[in-house]
Design brief:
This protein is an alpha/beta fold. The chain is built from 15 helices and 9 strands. The protein is globular and about 70 Å long. 25% of the residues are buried.
């Protein structure tokens, strides 16, 4: 094979290719034939022409080792358009670094919209955590005109919006609280309010997109980008309420499980509880936010869920250095929330602000919202086809039947069933 492009793979990319080879090889030293072709197809999908794949399999003969496989892939990438793996050197200076400054200027002018939903029982420190995270009084309870708020009789959804500015970047932060969640005698349906709220935000965004006179440039993004689900530090396993709610939410929003008030657990209890929570998440196939798999090593490091955190209610100043440490004062001493031995607060803060804030927004738009949009369009087409028959094309159907028509028909069907 001869290729015009010279491809350079990083050590991280080489290790990923070797790991993929070892997974398919199942301990065998060499890989050939259909297994090799299946591996290449799974890695590149439709980004490489079939004849190129066939030529690699043919050249492999009796089989290739892991090192030879990496070499073949390095050559094969010369004919690929696979984004993120094709590294082509340039002659001269293109000033590509200037793109970063352009994006920064656009971000400073437009600002960044980020909406976080906090879910969990009362008394788990959700408000204190948010105030500590953004170093301001941003929680709903701190913005309330009264100091006392009675427990709601049903699960409610309250949103508070703040504009936080640091340097030339401003963040429009939407904090969505859920008072009454898990505090009732019967909590079997409390997650339905949360799902309805998330779907309503998606539907509003979709209605604007489908409007013929839409103004996308000035469209406010009110979709929920992250859901911090606070878990009670029982030291046992996820409760039935936790499992029911997480299963309802994980397809709708980026779920980030958080073990609250971890200072009530010893280090051994905390680690054991984390493992049990991971086992429950895997057992019930609950997907938590895991990034896109293309972050740097530091970014990937913060994705180890769940996070065990402790919020600050005390600031301690070092007389010698003058540094201020935030944490929680207990009878046993001071718990420094920045200390990784005490809390995962620093990792969670890096995830939400420093490393994965934009990924959370992109995942919401390209994955969660896209799934909702497709499901709604399919439901509209299916409803219209049932009414008019299969002869009418989809474009005409979508024009004739709006989302409102579908909802009215569904409501009418429920009333007739009752």
């Amino acid at each position: 094979m001869s290729f015009d492009l010279a491809i350079e793979l990083s050590e991280k990319q080489r290790s990923k290719l070797k790991k993929a080879f070892e997974t398919v090889a199942h301990g065998e030293e060499k890989l050939a034939g259909a297994d090799l072709e299946a591996l290449i197809t799974s890695l590149f999908k439709d980004n490489v022409a079939p004849e190129r794949v066939a030529s690699v399999v043919s050249a492999a003969g009796d089989g290739v080792t892991a090192s030879q496989f990496v070499l073949h892939m390095q050559q094969l990438l010369g004919s690929s358009t696979f984004w993120g793996l094709l590294n082509t050197g340039v002659r001269g200076d293109l000033k590509l670094e200037a793109i970063h400054s352009q994006r920064r200027r656009a971000l400073a002018h437009r600002g960044l919209e980020f909406n976080v939903m906090v879910v969990g029982r009362s008394g788990l420190g959700k408000s204190s955590f948010l105030n500590t995270l953004y170093q301001a009084l941003v929680s709903r309870s701190k913005c309330s005109p009264t100091t006392y708020e009675p427990v709601p009789s049903t699960t409610e959804v309250h949103k508070v919006t703040h504009v936080i500015k640091e340097g030339d970047v401003q963040l429009k932060l939407g904090l969505i609280d859920t008072p009454g969640f898990g505090d009732l005698v019967d909590n079997s349906g409390c997650h339905e309010v949360l799902v309805s709220y998330i779907n309503a935000r998606y539907q509003t965004h979709m209605d604007v997109e489908m409007d013929s006179h839409r103004d996308m440039q000035n469209l406010a993004d009110n979709r929920v980008h992250a859901c911090l689900y606070f878990i009670e530090p029982t030291g046992h396993r996820l409760s039935q309420l936790d499992i029911q709610c997480l299963k309802a939410l994980h397809d709708k929003v980026n779920v980030i499980p958080v073990i609250a008030r971890c200072d009530t657990l010893t280090n051994e209890e905390k680690l054991a509880f984390k493992e049990r929570v991971k086992e429950d998440l895997d057992c019930f196939k609950i997907q938590t936010f895991s990034g896109d798999g293309h972050g740097d090593e530091e970014g990937d490091e913060v994705l180890d869920t769940p996070y065990a955190v402790v919020a600050a209610n005390f600031a301690q100043k070092d007389e010698q250095s003058g540094a201020v440490a935030r944490g929680r004062m207990t009878r046993c001493g001071f718990v420094d929330l920045e200390d990784a031995r005490h809390s995962d607060f620093a990792r969670l803060r890096r995830l939400l602000i420093e490393t994965h804030c934009q990924q959370l927004i992109d995942t919401t738009h390209y994955d969660k919202y896209e799934k909702y949009r497709v499901s709604q369009m399919d439901a509209s087409v299916a409803f219209a086809t049932q009414e008019d028959g299969p002869d009418e094309d989809d474009a005409t159907v979508i024009k004739r039947y709006s989302r409102l028509d579908l909802l009215e028909a569904q409501q009418g069907g429920h009333e007739s069933d009752a």
